[in-house]
Amino acid sequence: MAFLNKEVKKEFPEGFLWGGAVAANQCEGAYLEDGKQMSTADIKARGFFGGLRRDADYYPTHKAIDFYHTYKSDLKLMAEANFNIFRTSINWARIYPTGEEETPNQKGLDFYHDMFKYCHELGMKVMVTISHYETPLYLVDTYGGWDNRKFIEFYMKFVRTIVDNLDDVVDYWLTFNEIGNAAVKPICWDAACIYPDSENLLQRMYQAAHHQFVASALAVKYIHQHSNHAKVGAMIAYKTVYPYTCNPKDVIAAEKEKRKEYFFSDVQVRGKYPDYIWQYFEENNIKITFEEGDEEIIASYPVDFITFSYYRSRVVSSEETEAAEKIIDTNTLEGIVNPYLPKTGWGWSVDPDGLMLALQDLYDRYQKPLFISENGLGAIDTVEEGNVINDDYRIDYMRKHVQAMQRAIEKGVDLFGYTMWGPIDIVSNGTGQMSKRYGIIYVDLDDEGNGTGNRYLKKSYNWYKTVIGTNGKDLGIE
């Protein structure tokens, strides 16, 4: 009899990808420059949940941090922090300004090709999110949201163009950012281009999600056929879910919420609608229109790997536990307060153990390579004399989440990369603020866009540089 003992991984694997992630609409600015027209992000007003408006006095995405003009110096700072991967998106309205053009905007293609080529020159791989809340506004005004099937072909025209022109400088493609948000009311505008106050909202959101599943599969098909190197991944928003108590009814409620999250990765990874979703559709009178060939396309072209954002966990209860008084401000999307966890200044729970559980659960469920494409701490930073920013709170947050990643790797999870959100201060998508800062690089701009725009290195910059340089061995623990 022979015994098989497999060595347990104790460290981050050789070649692990470390870097940072941004979205084009939150950093580039130049919103009408070089042929670009308005995207859906460009009508989000400033301030804390400023909302969708056509008459606001200031839109933070219009200027953002001017990355469109400063990308070389900004990327150089990231490379000097030992980044070996950079994740960003392509602003659809910079390639097809209205979405209906037959010929793409060459200046837009040139901009992204130059940027991605420069990343490679600096030693960074490139991960591109094809659709990251940047749909041409004209398409939405003319055709509605993603529940209109016409969006599949508009999207595929965009995909074919960027793959044909940029694949030589792109290493990884992601089809949609946080695809599950297409069916989450507060942010369905971002993901599905549907106004949150629309009639028949739940029906529209899930029909939109179906069209994105088809579009994602078609994108995987096209990239696999036209690239000899690139891999294609899913990108989901993941929040570890806990029951409020050990009351079985709470546990059942938590499992129900988990399935609502898993639905989106189940379809993209397993290639079919899971059996459990049909009961949910029946309970909510949701009727998904499938056209001939949809099931075959979804089944034939699943993603190669899974990426996800992780910022916080959630607590769920059933009505029987009468936990309504525990609900906090719904603007945070937090739900019931977890008394065992600290919170950020914006009310988000800080739960690195939840990240370890997320990695275990996703890998156990799918056995696909995983990549953490967003994780970070939004906080108010203070600039001290000499432009010093001592953000020890960010270092503490990141250190604990890196340790959680390492524990997951020890438990057998195949994790191949991590891009913090966001390496440089950018406009918050959720609140339209610059003061909600995630970066290890400070940008001197306030919530009204005032300031020098100068970049300063925070204390966390040198900490993260050391972490990457030692492949996670030195976390600055004395």
Walk me through the structure.
- This protein has 478 residues and is α/β, with parallel strands linked by helices.
- It has helices spanning 24-27, 60-63, 67-80, 92-95, 106-121, 137-143, 150-166, 188-192, 201-226, 248-270, 277-283, 294-300, 352-366, 392-410, 459-469, and strands at residues 17-21, 85-89, 125-131, 172-176, 231-237, 241-243, 305-309, 314-316, 370-374, 415-421, 441-443, 455-457.
- The protein has a single domain (17-469), classed as Alpha-Beta Barrel (TIM Barrel), CATH 3.20.20.80.
- It contains 15 helices and twelve strands.
- The strands form three sheets. It has an eight-stranded parallel beta barrel, surrounded by five helices. It has a two-stranded parallel sheet with strand order 6-8.
- The longest helix has 26 residues, at 201-226.
- The model has no long low-confidence stretch (mean pLDDT 93).
Which helices and strands occur, and which strands form pairs?
Layout: E1 17-21, H1 24-27, H2 60-63, H3 67-80, E2 85-89, H4 92-95, H5 106-121, E3 125-131, H6 137-143, H7 150-166, E4 172-176, H8 188-192, H9 201-226, E5 231-237, E6 241-243, H10 248-270, H11 277-283, H12 294-300, E7 305-309, E8 314-316, H13 352-366, E9 370-374, H14 392-410, E10 415-421, E11 441-443, E12 455-457, H15 459-469
Parallel strand pairs: 1-2, 1-10, 2-3, 3-4, 4-5, 5-7, 6-8, 7-9, 9-10
Antiparallel strand pairs: 11-12
Helix pairs in contact: 3-5, 7-9, 9-12, 13-14
